[in-house]
Amino acid sequence: MDITKGKGGRPPMLPHVMRDLWEYLQETDKTIVLYGMGNGADKILSVLAERGVPVGGIFASDGFARGNLFHGMPVRTWSDVKAELGAENVIVLLSFGTSRPEVLENILRIRAEAELYAPDVPAFGDTLFTRPFYEAHKSDLEAARALLSNEESRRIFDNILSYKLSGDISYLLDAESDEDEIWRDILRPQTIRTAADLGAYNGDTVRQLLERTDGKVDTVWAMEPDARNYKKLEAYAQSETRAHIIPVNAGAWNEEATLFFDKSGNRNASFGQNRSQTLADRPAKMVEVKALPLDQVLGGARVDYIKYDVEGSEREALDGSLSTLTEHAPTLLVSLYHRSEDLFALPLHIKAIAPHYQGFYLRRMRGIPAWDINLYVRKEKI
User: What is the pTM (predicted TM-score) of this model?
Assistant: First the structure.
C-alpha cells in the first residue's frame, strides 16, 4: 500500500500522505481477516467497527485454533482461511505482538502468500496514529526528528513513522537495532556506577544492567508499583550479591500521590487512564498504589543512568526526576511506544525541561508491532 504521493524510491521525510491504513481498509474490496486474539484484536476490531469496516473472520496459529469463538467468530487456521476464501482475496491484519523468531518466521510465510499488515494501535490512550493525526503534528514530528543526533537514529525514526501510517511490517524489519552496539556506543557501561530502574518489573532489567556493566554498578534503585511483581523484585534484591538493589514499591510520578493501578501483574500493568475515578466506579482490576517522584526516592543521591519504561507515564516520571536530571545529567533510556504521541512529544519534552542534554539516539529492538522503541539521551553527543 503506497501512502505517499509520487512513485519510485523511498519518499522524502515527512511527505504529504494520501491515506493511512485505516482509510485503505475502508476502500478495499478484499475480505479482512484477523490473525490473533487478545487485547490487540479487541482494539483493532473496535476501530474497524467505528469506521464501518466489516471483518470476515479470524484465525490463529495451529495450536490456538481449537474451534473456540472470539467476538462471536469461530477461530480457524490459516489453512482453513485459504481454502475457504483464497489467499489472494484477503487482507490479513496481524493483531498480536511478538519477538519470537519462529513466530516472526510464520508471519513472514503468511505475508508471502497474502496481503498482510500490522495495524498500529497504542498500548495506552485512544488516539490513533492516523493521517489526520500525522498532518496535525507534522511540525512536532519534524522538530523531534531534528533533535536526533545521527543518521541511524533518523533512519529508524523514518521507518517507524512510515510503519505507523501504513501498517507495512517491512518498515519494522528495516528498523532493527543491535543491542551490543547500544550498550557499547551509547550507554557505555563503564560509566555507570549507580542507576535507577523505573518500571523494574521482577528485576529482569536490573539483572541485564549488572551483566552488561560486569559488576561495576554499586547501587540500583528499582521502582515497581505492582504488588505481585514487587514481591519477585524484592526477593531478587535480597539474593543479588553483585550490587545493592533498593526496591521501592511505588510507581514513578511527578509528585507523591495515590493512583489507581491495573493489578494484572504483567509487564504492561499500568496506572488507570482515568486517574480521578472514585473507589466506587473504578474497574474491578484497579487497585490504589503509591506513586513517588524519583527525586524524592533518591533524596539527592547521584545516579549515572535512569531507565524510564513506565507504561505510558513517562512524561510524569521525567517531571518527577527534574532535579536529578539538572544536577547530575544521567544517561537516560526513555520508552517511546506506549502512546501515539510519544514518538515526538517525549523527546521535545526532555529538551524543554532539560536543555543541557545534547545527544539524542533512537533505537528499536526486533519485533512486531512497533514496540520497544527507546530514546537514549546523553548530556553530550557521542
Answer: 0.91
